[in-house]
Amino acid sequence: MAVITVLAVLCVIPFHMGLSRVDTATVFFISVILAVSYRLITTTGDWGFAHIIFQGVGAYAAALLGKHAGIPFIVMVPLAGLVTALVGAIVMYPMLRTKGFGFFITSFAFGELIRMIWVKVKDPFGGVGGIINIPMPELFGLKLFSLVNYYFACMVFMVVSVFIMWRIDRSRIANAWKAIHTDDMLAECMGVNVARYRTLAFTVGCFFAGIAGALVAYRLGSIDPHNFNINEMVYLVIWVVIGGAATFWGPLIGVTLLTVVFELSRELEEWRPMMFGGILIMFLIFLPGGIESLLPALRRPPSEHYARFRKWLTTLRPG
Amino acid sequence: MALLEVRNLSKNFGGLAAVSEFDLDVEEGEIRGIIGPNGAGKTTLFNVISGTLRPSGGSINFEGQSIAGKRPSAIAAMGAVRTFQRTALFEDFDTMGNVSIARHLHAKETIFGAILGTARKMELANERRAEEIIEFIGLGEVKHELAINLSHGHQRALNVAMALAAEPRLLMLDEPVAGMNPGETAVMTDIIRNLRKDWGITVILVEHDMRTVMDVCEQITVINFGRKLAEGTPDEIVSNDDVIEAYLGSEDILGEDF
Q1: If DSSP codes are grouped into helix, strand and coil, which group holds residue B88?
Q2: Residue of B90, B113, B123 lying closest to A182 (CB–CB)
Q3: What is the model's pTM?
Q4: What is the domain partition of chain A in residue ranges?
Q5: Residue B40 carries which DSSP code?
């Protein structure tokens, strides 16, 4: 029910706000795909630092194939996802030997390697200048150059992607991923092929990162390596940490809230990194489970809150 | 042909031979005990057989097929499943959830099946089987408790339930009664006996608690310094001079110190 209400609101609002806001909302949809897919990978315990790079892989795939092979938008977006999934699976193979902090650093190194390839290999990646003149997306004769039209295209991709990842999150496969996170040796001995399941999670996560990348490429019309630098990755981590990664809804909460904060702080441009760093530190200290960890408290009846409050008061009494 | 045939098995850690020239035959339907002093190589032997460690040499055959050096998940899929000496659980899940995850091998789901929700029937059958196992182990009352909130005895029982959920033909239990009180130990001993009686599962038991081993095993293998010291019935083992010297004797000496 809540989902239907949100969707209805999202369908109406682009007609009632300025075009820059429509564009912001489009970016928000892409961010949602990115954050939810990043969290999907982290369910196995693999906190990587290259998700933005995989978004870039999707963006480059869409830019190059869309430009040179003339593949239409509707085919290109999922295809960019598949290309990214393939690259992800290949990169994951050596990374399977690492876990925890080692995985974090290795993924960062592989990410930088891919970024260096974009910078150094001018043909076909275009070096620091990137790729320009990506064809305007078109859907059944409808020009998606119009911001409102593109808003709806991204919204559809976001809704479908989130729905698919939600289904996966409620499946047995996701339970196996969580089991690997808790105790990979135990999971392995219970018959879970840990290497295969970690690769599966990484590949699926990369698929959706690639979709987000293709949507970014078509939105901008030109891309370069700077679109996928470490700043963007840091924001992605902040979204997921602040929302929380334990449940499916955490990253959604995080990305929604921080997009609002980001927009409201437009005038404080140069203070933003400091502000977001501060928010991150505050959350890690006072609410390490993210905002989602507050949700169970909302479901408690008021009487229980009162009882807890009374109990808390007694701890303040000296002696 | 024995269900499990270990021949000339060795495992070295650098210069240290944790297991060497080890032979072991476990027949179908047996409850085999493996005992030995601390650091004798019991757990290493287990780790190598179950695939947690790679053997340095020798062969391991399960049902006539070589399992030496295979992944633990592949060995589990063939029907040889182990438990751990430590209490190993998926803490964020309840009893049911833990057993359900451990049914992984018998509840395959593809990513597309997950998205389309086509596995419902399989999941129901799966749930029934999980409940059966939970009842058998005696965890029915704590079916929906989070694993981390269970008592120690229940947690250890859950470990066995999870191993059972993988439908093993050979179950390898690493110190199943470690840290249990006498009451909990008696319950676990009964479970081990019933495993064979009701479900026909062959059991290998690595154990420190001598009474449990003498109680449930017909055949006992004694290991010391990574080598086989003796093998036989409980009566033969307790009267074997080598064993008394290596194992029981050393404990007597310790006893005098205290």
Answers
A1: coil
A2: B90
A3: 0.90
A4: 2-228, 229-319
A5: S
